[in-house]
């Protein structure tokens, strides 16, 4: 696997993995094709074949892809063969929802710790977890070798929290804070901001 694969290609792999998993688990399918995947996802079959070709040959002409085999290979490529423990920072409304969201399960991730600085939230139970004081964040992350974190804090705290996470070894961050965050090379950061997505879509409205 080379390091010059475009990030946009990496970004489509989880989409393929999700649809393949649906085919296998919900529809009981054994095989599929790039044409079928393309129709289901709104992506050209040529693009799907090109994306997958960066990582090897997974299909056979005439029979297409064996779904479970391709799922296995995509999970290997995305380093999802083992479950990743995730630190969640922020126990407000959004953090509460994330803590109770079970969509992470069986997809490679498990929220294992929740941190907050609000005394009224510290010690509160959220799902199966207890909210910890954010002052303990660095110690826990270092001791547990956590590499993945989710930030669900107000914008004015987000950069400070990001800096603290990076300083103790976190290398993948998903941020729900409505602000651009600066991270050093070697740290991957993604953003989830529904307002940005809505603003992009309204461009296309008449």
Structure description:
The structure is a single chain. With about 210 residues, the chain is α/β, with parallel strands linked by helices. The chain folds into two domains: about 5-75, Arc Repressor Mutant, subunit A, CATH 1.10.10; about 85-195, NAD(P)-binding Rossmann-like Domain (Rossmann fold, 3-Layer(aba) Sandwich), CATH 3.40.50. The protein contains eight helices and ten strands. The protein has helices at about 5-25, 35-40, 45-55, 65-75, 95-100, 135-145, 155-165, 195-200, and strands at about 30, 60, 65, 85-90, 110-115, 125, 130-135, 150, 170-175, 190. The strands form two sheets. It has a seven-stranded mixed sheet. It has a three-stranded antiparallel sheet with strand order 1-3-2. β4 (about 85-90), α5 (about 95-100) and β5 (about 110-115) form a beta-alpha-beta unit. α1 runs antiparallel to α4 (about 65-75) and α2 packs across α3.
